[in-house]
Design a protein that fits this description.
Layout: E1 4-11, H1 13-17, H2 21-30, E2 34-41, H3 45-51, H4 61-68, E3 73-81, H5 83-91, H6 104-108, E4 117-119, H7 123-134
Antiparallel strand pairs: 1-3, 1-4, 2-3
Helix pairs in contact: 3-4
Bound molecules: adenosine-3',5'-cyclic-monophosphate.
Length: 136
């Protein structure tokens, strides 16, 4: 059975603001994660709240939604072998302080909020998140 998967990646406002789009895309490409589609977009707070609704019970939810809608982001469909898990390995731990060397969050992340990238955490969520940005 093929293990070629698709996952949703977001370059967050802190990284877009610092002109890191091409550098981060180059990491995916170098690691054989194909960028099938990409889109630069500025979400409203309501759209960000819909995107992150799995986190709605968390104490950081409101700040998270404000942050994701604070500036332009780049949403991408990444495709490749074990793409969901592999992208999470390339990103590193959620908190850049705890991320391993050479991971995207270690290289570019500023804080747990401004951690430069998002990646789907399961195949099921990847489908939902891809639909959120790219359906129709
Ligand atoms: P992300 O992978 O986009 O998914 C949810 C985001 O919530 C996460 O990255 C972090 O940027 C943010 N966040 C803020 N505080 C926390 C926290 N205490 N634990 C986990 N995620 C957090």
């Amino acid at each position: 059975m093929s293990n070629i998967e698709q996952t949703l990646s977001i370059i967050k406002p802190d990284a877009v603001e610092r002109n890191l789009i091409d550098e981060i895309k180059a990491i995916f490409i170098k690691n054989n994660l194909n960028i099938k589609e990409d889109k630069k977009i500025h979400l409203t707070k309501e759209e960000a709240a819909e995107f992150y609704k799995v986190h709605q019970s968390k104490p950081f939810y409101d700040d998270l939604c404000s942050y994701l809608s604070s500036g332009p982001i780049v949403a991408m469909i990444l495709e490749g072998k074990n793409a969901v898990l592999f992208n999470r390995q390339l990103m590193g731990a959620t908190d850049p302080k705890k991320a391993e060397d050479k991971t995207i969050r270690k290289l570019y992340g500023i804080s747990i909020d401004k951690n430069s990238v998002h990646g789907s955490d399961s195949i099921e969520n990847a489908k939902k998140e891809i639909d959120f940005f790219f359906k129709n």
